[in-house]
Amino acid sequence: MTEFCRKRWEAWVSEIRITWVLVLLLTVVPAVLFGTAILSMMVLIGVVLLGIPTALAAFLVIKDKAWCARLCRRVVVMMVVSALAVVAVLKTDKLTPGMASPIAKAIEDFKQENGGYPETLAALSPKHLPRLPAVRIAVFQPEVIYRVREGRPYLAVPSAAGDSFSKYEYSFEDQRWVHYD
Fold it and tell me: Could you give the CA distance from residue 103 to residue 125 in angstroms, rounded to a whole number?
C-alpha cells in the first residue's frame, strides 16, 4: 500500500507540482482574498476549450505516452481545482444578502428616526451601524454602493460571480435583496 501511495503521490503531485502552484495562484488565492470567481471561471473555460482538445490530440499524435499521461493529469488538476473554486465562491455568494442585511436595516432605522434616508453610509455610524459588516466571505471586501437620488435610496453589493457585472441590489419598497446578473 505504501508503494502504491508513493507512486500516486509522485504522479499526481511531484511530477506536476508547477501546475499545482499555478492553478492555486490563479484560482484559489483570488477566491480566498477577494471572494471572486472570475479567474477560476477563465481557467476553467481555457481548460475546456484548449486543454482537453490538446490532451486528446497529444494521445493521437505523440508517441511518448508518459508525457501524454502527465499532460492529462495537468488538465485534470486544472479543471477540478478551478471548478471547485468556482463552486465554492458561488455557494458562499448566496450568503451575501444575509451578510449585507444589517446595512439595509440601519438605513431603514435611520429613515424612521430622522424622516429621511442618510446621504452616506458614514452617517449611520456609530448609532445605527458602528461599522460596515463584511458582505462577502473574503479577506478583502468589495465596495458597498450607496447613494440617494431624488429622495430614493440605492444600495448594492457586487456579487462574487462577476463583481462589476453582477450585483445584489436592495429594494427598499419590497424590503428584499434582488440579484442582477
Answer: 11
Question: Within 130-178, where are the H helices?
Answer: none
**In this predicted structure, what is the pLDDT of residue 164?**
62
| DSSP bridge pairs for 157 | 168
Rounded CA-CA distance 111/155 in Å is 14
Q: How far apart are CA 150 and CA 157, in angstroms?
A: 21
C-alpha 30/C-alpha 35 separation (Å) is 7
What is the pTM (predicted TM-score) of this model? 0.86
Q: How far apart are the first and last CA of the chain?
A: 49
Q: For 148, phi and psi rounded to 5 degrees?
A: -125, 125
Q: Report which of 119, 159, 124 is spatially closest to residue 143, judged by C-alpha positions.
A: 159
Tens-place pLDDT, residues 122-163: 999 899 999 999 999 999 999 999 999 998 999 999 998 775
H-helix segments, 35-64? 38-46, 52-61
- The string over 68-88, giving b where at least 16 C-beta atoms fall within 10 Å of a residue's C-beta and e elsewhere, is bebbbbbbbbbbebbbebbeb
For residue 166, what pLDDT is reported? 84
For strand 152-159 and strand 163-171, is the pairing parallel, antiparallel, or unpaired?
antiparallel
Asked whether the beta carbons of 100 and 157 are under 8 A apart, the reply is yes
Burial of 12: CB neighbours in 10 Å, binned 0-12, 13-18, 19+: middle
Three-state DSSP state, 29? helix
